[in-house]
Design goal:
2 domains; Glutaredoxin; single chain; four-stranded antiparallel β-sheet; about 260 residues
Length: about 260
């Protein structure tokens, strides 16, 4: 989806670009001088700690676009300059950097198996939109959103919940998420609802919990807080939205 200049979401902090700084050293190497066109595999072999999503020509001659997860940076072909920021196409009034981020987010989200998420959905034939929400069981606005989950479903919106305990691993919120998951497929939806109502859960954790995978995915995508709501196209819709606000945003995306 094209991103209008006024729709920019300023969530690209320097934290997400630390891996990209390693690329500056690579592009300045003698290897880079010999081989101008670089593949993801070549970069990954030299810097295995970097998860490079893509290296491609930007719309500006002489500048590469480099995506590391959902972070985007730009590097000159000679490897001398690297910079981060938003690249706008003034002719079409588009934020090209955010458009690239959306593409990466969409790929990451679509790779999630449905059986590794907690789904609240209308009947199959009534689904109009699908959203992915990174949620924290102890987050106030996450709870407020979930109080309206039936209204959201009634509007034809399928919700795919992924856990993102803001306090990180080995905390009460993390263990609570694991307990909800480990309760078993038949009870997860009910127990997630109870947990969001603040009810105590007398359950055990287990080794098969995907909470860590959800959390790492959220970090790759650039989640900065919860709830973090994304469309299937990778657009960041925002934090808490009422059912009416949510469907309005989704319908707007559909017509863009």
């Amino acid at each position: 989806m094209p991103i209008l200049m006024g729709d920019h979401i300023g969530d690209t902090l320097m934290f997400w670009f630390k891996p990209i700084l390693f690329l500056a050293f690579f592009f300045n190497s003698s290897f880079a001088q010999e081989q101008v066109s670089l593949s993801k595999e070549e970069i990954a072999n030299l810097f295995p700690e970097i998860d490079v999503s893509s290296v491609s020509d930007s719309p500006i001659s002489g500048i590469y676009e480099v995506a590391v997860n959902s972070s985007v940076a730009y590097i000159t072909h000679d490897g001398r300059y690297v910079f981060q920021g938003e690249l706008f196409d003034l002719h079409f009034n588009m934020n090209l950097t955010e458009t690239k981020r959306e593409m990466v987010r969409s790929d990451l989200i679509s790779a999630v198996n449905q059986d590794q998420a907690i789904i609240f959905s209308p009947a199959m034939e009534k689904i109009k939109h699908t959203i992915t929400i990174f949620t924290d069981l102890d987050c106030g606005y996450c709870r407020k959103f979930h109080e309206e989950i039936n209204e959201v479903n009634d509007l034809g919106i399928k919700v795919q919940y992924l856990f993102y305990p803001r306090t990180g691993p080995d905390t009460d919120s993390w263990y609570k998420a694991e307990k909800v998951w480990c309760s078993g497929t038949a009870e997860r939806n009910m127990l997630l609802t109870k947990a969001k109502l603040g009810e105590s859960l007398q359950l055990e954790s287990c080794d098969r919990s995907p909470v860590s995978n959800h959390y790492q995915l959220g970090r790759k995508i650039g989640v900065m807080g919860t709830p973090a709501i994304y469309s299937s196209s990778g657009a960041h819709l925002g934090g808490y939205l009422s059912p009416v606000e949510l469907i309005t945003k989704l319908e707007t995306l559909s017509y863009d």
